Structures are given as structure tokens and as C-alpha cells.
What we know:
Blueprint: H1 2-9, H2 11-19, E1 22-23, H3 30-42, E2 49-53, E3 60-63, E4 71-75, H4 76-82
Parallel strand pairs: 2-4
Antiparallel strand pairs: 1-2, 3-4
Amino acid sequence: MSIVLWGERNAPDHVIAIIGAQRASEAEYPELLSTVRNIAHQVAVPAPTIYVAPTETPISLTTGFTARTSRLVVSEGLLNALE
């Protein structure tokens, strides 16, 4: 039973690792981080940790079990399409 729970608890990290996403830095993605923080503030939820996936396919996904542990993943392709 504990193995299943451990595996499920770490599932968000596995998803991010599988797609090769890297945590978005303030230096590289200031506009993305600012936009996500502003939207989170408007709806009174904690801002998710943001990751960028190295693919030109425009995708986004969220993973995590609570608002405090949520992660937002966006692809480079989506960021390019939104510019």
C-alpha cells in the first residue's frame, strides 16, 4: 500500500521529467511568470510552479494534488504561438 501512495505522490515530478520540462526562471521567462502570478492573484489561489517543455508542439498541462503543490507546464511552441 505505501508503495502505491509513494508512486502517486511523486507522479507530478515523473510527468515533468518524462516530457523534459525545466523550471522557468525569472531571467528567461519574466513575462510568463508575471502573467501567471497576476492571474493566480486575481482568483485568490497560490501561483503554481511553472515549467517549460522543450517541444514546438503547443501544449499546456497542470499537475499536482493541491493548489500549493500545483505545477503548470507550457511548451516552447505554445509560448511562441502566443507572442
